[in-house]
Amino acid sequence: MNRKLRMGMVGGGSDAFIGAVHRLAAFMDNQIELVCGCFSVDPEISKASGKSYFLPENRVYTTYQEMFEQEARLPEGERMDFVTIVTPNFVHFAPAMMALENGFHVVIDKPITFTLDEALTLQSKLQETGLTLALTHTYSGYPAVKEAKERVARGELGEIKRIYVEYPQGWLASKLEDTGNKQASWRTDPKRSGKAGCMGDIGTHAHHLAEYISGLKVTELCAELNVFVPGRLLDDDGAALLRFDNGARGVLMATQIAAGEENALKIRMYGDKGGLEWNQHEPNTLWMKWADRPTEMVRVGTGQMGAVSQHNTRTPGGHPEGYLEAFANIYRNFSLTVRAKMNNEQPTAAMLDFPGIEDGVRGMRFIDTVVEAGYSDTVKWVKFEE
């Protein structure tokens, strides 16, 4: 196969928040083209968006059901190869399931579904179909994060003992959902967001980053969830103590009421030989800390990086690899994997390095567990159910 992969979209209209980011990321490596979409529940917005994306009228749909049915009927040389789903959480499962049923690969925003049961159903469907799903846990796409993961896997830090991960934001410090802000409205609405607010939105990112870099799994947690803004229906702040499957201990903090903060995601990890630190506000730098020698600054785009990080780096040292590039790494690795499968080839480990269904199920287990623990005054530790 010697062509671009053909992408459809559900959501991501001209009035959407994250749709443009997905398109920029998908197009960055010249592997993907947009060929169709249902870009909004409002047919007029969907049509107008499709026109602005230079799509033919007959490939702009008014419902995602119509899109999957019509695309599946097209000749193999015309129909989309995969769909990107960029909708509020409650509209994740149905289009993802219908896409898989019609033979289309899937890229989807996190959290993967509205409930854990939905995520498990998708997992079964993927196993049945052999199709590929990517989950956009963006921060795992940064080259420095991949370098951290590789160094931990090589045992440079020794056995991991302690993990601290924090994600403070400040955008919901006031009741923004009452001002007509679209993003605040659905993210604070349990009917559209699910049982978790802040923890579902950004706590899942912190949880995924801790597991991704460490290679460990959280087995149980103790948590506190808070609603600081009066009248808000979901948590806007929380913290959890974590226990990992190797005996390591962790602390996770996520908040959206830290006034003045932007997206200050940060992780620190310590083993019996040394530690590491990475901060999303300075994503090109990974700090390696040692018990017996000075702290080492590892920079992206230099000869200090390993093969996996270099595979995910586009620019020379000193030129920042940012959020869009990290997002694009998920799309590129996903597209390389799909292309390899279409060519009856085995994807390499570097191609397969993107979040998938297992990460999605883990994220939903985290949400269920942190909500159960976070609102209980009687139960201290809650185990992840498997």
Structure explained in plain terms:
This protein is α/β, with parallel strands linked by helices. Helix content is 34%, strand content 22%. It is built from 12 helices and 14 strands. The strands form 2 sheets. Strands 13-12-11-10-6-9-8-7-14 form a 9-stranded mixed β-sheet. It has a 5-stranded parallel β-sheet with strand order 2-1-3-4-5, sandwiched between helices. The chain is globular, with a radius of gyration of 21 Å. The model has no long low-confidence stretch (mean pLDDT 96).
- Terminus-to-terminus distance: 39 Å
> Largest beta sheet: what is the strand line-up?
13-12-11-10-6-9-8-7-14
Largest sheet: 9 strands, mixed
Content-based structural category? alpha/beta
Q: What's the order of the H and E elements?
A: EHEHHEHEHEHEHHHEEEEEEEHHHE
Fraction of residues in H or I helices = 25-40%
| Total count of strands | 14
Report the radius of gyration as a whole number of Å. Answer: 21 Å
Mean pLDDT: 96
So how many helices?
12
What gross morphology would you assign? globular
Strand residue percentage: 15-25%
- Which spans have pLDDT < 50 for at least 5 consecutive residues? none
